[in-house]
Amino acid sequence: MSELRSVLDALAGADLHELADGEVLERVALLVAVGNRVAAELTRTVRHADVRQAAEHDGLTSMRSWLIGHARLAPADASRVVRSGRALEHFPALAAGFAEGAVTAAQFDVVAGAVGERERAQAAEQGVELAPFDEAWTAVAVESPHSTLITAVQAFEAALDPDGVEPDPTEGRRLSIARHADGSVTGRFDLDAVGGEKVQAAIESIVQASRPKGDERTRGQQNADALVQLCDNQLAAGTLPTLRTVKPHVVLGVDLDDVVDPATGPGAAQTGFGAQISAARARWLACDASISRIVMGPDGVPLELGRDHRVVTPGLRKAVVRRDRACVFAGCDAPHWWCDVHHLVHWLHGGETSLGNSGLLCERHHTKVHHGFRIERDPGGRWRTWRPDGTEVLLGPAP
Question: What whole-number distance in Å separates Cα of residue 235 and Cα of residue 239?
Answer without folding.
Answer: 7
